[in-house]
Amino acid sequence: MTRSVRSRVLRAALAGLVVAGLLPAGSSTSTAAPATTSVTAATELPGPAGDKAARPYMGWSSYSMQVYNPNGGSWITADQLIAQSDAMHAKLQPYGYEYINIDAGWNDGIDAYGRPTPSKKLYPNGLQVVIDHIHANGQKVGLYTIPGISKAVIDAKLPIYGAPGCTTGDLPVLPLQKGDYWGIGYRIDFSKPCAQKYVDSIADLFGSWGLDFLKFDSVTPGSGISDLSLDARDDVKAWSQALKRHNIWFELSWALDINYADYWKQYANGWRIDWDVECYCTGTALTAWPNINRLFPKLAEWWRHAGPGGWNDLDSLDVGNGQMDGLTKDERRTAATLWAVSAAPMYVGNDMTKLDAYGLELLTNREVIAVNQAGRPAHPLSMKTNRQTWFALNPDSSYTVALFNLGQTDADMTVNFADLGLNGAGKVRDLWARKDLGTFASGFTAHDVPIHGVRLLKVTPQKNSAITVNDDDRRMAYDGAWERNKNYEVPAVSQALTVGVTDSSPQSSAKAADLPTRTVEVNNNSPEIVYSGNWNYSSGRGLGDYQDDVQWTEGNGDSFSYSFVGTGVDYVTETDPGQGDVDIYIDGEFKQTVSTYLDPAEGHNKPQQVVYSVSDLPNGSHTIRAVKKSGQFMLLDKLNIRQESLLNPDTATFDKNAPADVSVQLGRDPGELDGIAKAGQELVKGTDYTVSGNTVTISKSYLANLPVGNTALDVRFRGDYRDDIHATKADGASVSLTFTGTGVEWSTALAPDQGDADVYVDGKLVRRVNLHNDTRVTNRTVFTATGLRNAQHVVRIVKVNGDVLRNDTIRYSIAK
């Protein structure tokens, strides 16, 4: 898909868009006031829909078929919408599907107050007849709009309904500023009271029609805009407030900027996290595998933000008919699984009158639907491979586990229960096959998971097991001002320590390298680089590439990502006239758009160009992700990773002719030292090395057996569990976990900036724990309670004093 294609499609469909409504010749100028509509009281859940958004919604959207069919408008006519509603009622509604969402192009004018009027051509008997039919089927109905207001409506200076003295001419920001991606309308100035009243008047009109859902498209930051040159946040807030009175679900689109996730969560019930799933293959296919594959790295960043009240939207689920989906059967099931385990809204994009048997099987598996409706977003164990395990811990202590094979061959895939946080045996059920597979002691292997295929499992802990719950798990309930990471964590990292082993004889000149930092070159074919989309590999190019090879793609939205330990990274590629822009993300945060374009006057295929570089990252674990934005090609040649040296080079040389222990000062607290290894072989603490203060001493008996030269030792440090932590500076802030079991323990960091915390079990203060320590250490068990009655319990931890309280893990025991 390209933005130009999408723009042409939508410009054709948006001839009479709602708030940005043009005033075409012959448009309605009705002065009739809207019918009175009841107002639903607000609920405690975020977003305007309240309890309605306690779970991801299920339904159908017209847009996939609108762009699949050459006459897209035919998919939002009264007859077509009624046909889709009836098909849903017969085939999918018994399984929870209930929304009929009408996308762009449903209206063709405005009334005398600048509010949208439904198309008379599409709905000759009125849109209300269609809405009433959908409601009579026990379903809900949705419509579409975008931010801003059109120039025609501004110039018309129409009165605003219910707001004496206000006109549409009062509304825009002056001078006029573009209000949406396509340039259809202009920004509204929400510092003016009339602006909110205008949005309220439209929301009240929608409420009088019985609207249940509103898709708000071209929301920025997002929607192809990587900066604040377009900013629709004021529109989002205004619409959220207006829709809340009518309990209307508010969905934002598209490719929302994750840096503003907290804002979207405050005001909306869902948000599209990526570009359109459609391939824009008119009459050929609805979607394509790269458009599914590229969602995995996005979800790895977004999953924490989904929960009751607001959900990560992956766009239409186009898996209902193999003759139009554009996916293989395995890819269709993988897509359905990804939507389910991500707790994403499951709305079909197919013609529901033509669902095939396999599509119905995918869309009506009650066990898979239950995974989706449980609202427990899964997350990956690792993104370092294309064979990925995604999992979620459920309130009943079971795990949902999806084994995704995104690689190019069939593969056996193993999940170790300990990696999930389960210490003990688990009973495994295959949810797609609806079959129990048995009880396994420590893990499960799925054999021959097909290319682009999946196995979806439920793992139920058995007796005498224990569950470790990470700080970012949705089962952790935080009260007060908490932050995840923000430099409070200590990543579990490995760093190279180089010891020079020398020979004092005249012919030897080897010595320890004086390297305060080092650069590691990672070639494009490294198995730890994860490619998302349709990438190709070329070698033997003879153009001066690093190791004479590159990885390349032509698909906008395709990306690569690489996780590393260090302080900096360079993206190295070739530049060429056939290449364009690439968006760079570090640790999930957009950094900048870089150009890989080369002016033809300067030549072609200019190799090994550093197009992006950063050198001031905190020393620890990071991820770079690069996404193709434009141009015909995007290439990756190599990545340069900068790492700090732990070595004090003045004290780290060992002379074989004058044997002595070598003392090495470390760049961090050795109290967190987890071990030292060379070529995967563990050194024995106390024999091969000792630790004292800030110094590690490597024994002469070990060094004497090493060859002359510089020996790289892998020094590993303990970090917070899964390399993250939650922290608060507010006294009285708390974290709690509800569990069923017979024992519980809390593990966290100790540090100089920490003080006391009170631990409550079932509402009773059990112990005050002191978390102060002269040095920073992690993974310390600071509270344990055993012998609890086998029932549901709540453990709650409250900050008492100190600068910071950190929460890492809570572990509980399953009854014997």
Structure description:
This protein has 816 residues and is α+β, with helices and mostly antiparallel strands. It folds into five domains: 57-146 and 192-374, Alpha-Beta Barrel (TIM Barrel), CATH 3.20.20; 387-462, Golgi alpha-mannosidase II (Immunoglobulin-like); 470-483 and 722-814, Galactose-binding domain-like (Jelly Rolls, Sandwich); 494-516 and 645-718, no CATH class; 521-639, Galactose-binding domain-like (Jelly Rolls). A hairpin with a 6-residue loop joins strand 13 (379-380) and strand 14. Helix 11 (329-341) runs parallel beside helix 12 and helix 11 packs parallel to helix 13. The longest helix is centred in the N-terminal third of the chain and has 17 residues, at 193-209. It is globular, with a radius of gyration of 29 Å.
Question: What are its keywords?
Answer:
single chain; alpha+beta; TIM Barrel; Immunoglobulin-like; Jelly Rolls; 5 domains; eight-stranded parallel sheet; six-stranded antiparallel sheet; 53 strands
What is the global morphology? globular
Residues in helices, as a percent range = 10-25%
**SS-based structural class?**
alpha+beta
C-alpha termini separation: 55 Å
> What is the C-alpha radius of gyration, as a whole number of Å?
29 Å
The total count of strands amounts to: 53
User: What share of residues are in beta strands?
Assistant: 25-35%
CATH topology of the largest domain: TIM Barrel
The biggest beta sheet reads:
8 strands, parallel
Supply the CATH architecture of the largest domain: Alpha-Beta Barrel
Superfamily at the CATH H level of the largest domain? Aldolase class I
What is the count of distinct domains? 5
Mean pLDDT: 89
Strand order of the largest sheet: 11-8-7-6-5-2-1-12
Treating each run of at least 4 consecutive H or I residues as one helix, how many helices? Answer: 15
